[in-house]
Each structure stands twice: as C-alpha cells, then as structure tokens.
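so my prof wants the structure for this chain in the tokens format not the other one, which i didnt know existed until like an hour ago. anyway here's the sequence
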Amino acid sequence: MPSPFPGMDPYLEGYLWPDVHSALAHKIRQQLAPQIQPHYVARIEISVVEDESFSADIGVMYPDVEVIRTRYPATPDDAPRGAGPVITAAPMTLALPEVRLTHVDIRDVAQNQWVTSIEIISPVNKREPHLSRYRQKRHRVRQADVHLLEIDLLRRGTRVWTYDGMPSHIPYLVVLTRSGAQQMEIWPIRLEDQLPVLPVPLRPPHEDVALDLQAAITALYDEAYYHLSIDYHQGPPPPECSERERQWMRELLQGL
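here's what i got, hopefully its the right format
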C-alpha cells in the first residue's frame, strides 16, 4: 500500500526515521549515479555520534531506550569506621543512543575533488549541542567551495538556518547553496505538497542533474512496507500540527 500523503508522510518522522534516513541516502545515490557518470561518482558517507540531548525524544525517536542501573559492590557492614568515605550505590544511568548520520557526497573522478554535499537533516542536527556543530560544518563546507544541498523533512526541532527571511511555520524545507553564491535557493514544502524535483549542481561545464525527491520517498516507502508499521488512526509524531493541517489530514485519512 502506498503512503496516503501526496508528499512527505509525517508518520515517518518518529521511530522509523533512522531507517528512512538511511534508505533515502541510498535512493539519492541510486538516482544520481547514472546521471553523473563517467565524470563524477556519488558516495555515501556515514558518521556516528552520541545523542547527548536525547531525553526529549524518548518515546518519539527512541521508544526503547534501555535504562541501565549500575551499582558498585556492596560495602560490608563491618567496614572500619574512619577508614574514609563509604562508596554508595551508583545512581540510575542512561546509555546515550548512538546516531548514524548519513549523507551523500559527489566527487569528480579525475582528481577525487569534493564537488557537492547532500545533507539529510537528522533530529540530532536540530538540537544542541549538535545544532551548533552542524552550523559550523555548514560554514566549513562553504569555505571549501563545495555546493551544499540540505534536505529537512522533519517538523521537529530548530531549523539549522539562521538567516533572516527564511520561511517559518513551514513543515519541510530544502535549501541549495551553490559554491561561491551569495544567495540560497529555497523550497518551502507544506504537508499537502508533492516533494520537488531538485537541481544538483556539478562543476562547469557540466549542467545540473535532477533529483526527484518525491520519487525517492515513494520508492522507499513501498519497498520497506512502512504502512505495516504505521497506525494512521493515531496522530503523527510530535510536534502537533496546526488546526488547518489536522483538518486536512482528517479528510485525507478518512476511510483508511
């Protein structure tokens, strides 16, 4: 069964997101590789970080975070008095979830130079301390004379862009910053919108190639049978939608 949503499905933004994120990176490479060869290659890059501020997402992104209780060996009752501080039981601790951050890099074949970075924004990128780290990374990419295409398909969290005039109260956003450009190309996306076909820039004399974001999301939804993991009779993961969006979703999902 295909997703009932014409564009991004907000029900994919919860605990399914890590799987969606990884699958989307592979779909992007699958689309681009035939278009950019033989002069360029698309490579998937993976980094692993600890989510240091994950507590707000327990039950949303992390439904099964394990609470680990660690205790020191019990102190004997007959320990000599005055022998020093008595070691007491350790407090309850939480294991920090590890998050795999996946993005797609385009490199030229001749010199293996970094040409374009395609970032799929993760929840960990949209809250501190990783929000500041991601913004620093954006600056480094721009300084490296690399095109940067950023795809934010998450309503939750703080937008990674800090510029005046950025669309607000828009569920999803795609931003393209071309190498050396003093302006950005922005695609604001509502729940009822189809996802756009995006230009992916290369180096002169080669023209942009096309990334069909909707085709990528549709294909990965179908291939993963996500509908078997989603209860559309319940509301989508946080944050809460506007009244207009809720009414639109009620009409869309009735009869499922």
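also thought this was worth mentioning. The chain is about 20% helix and 25% strand.
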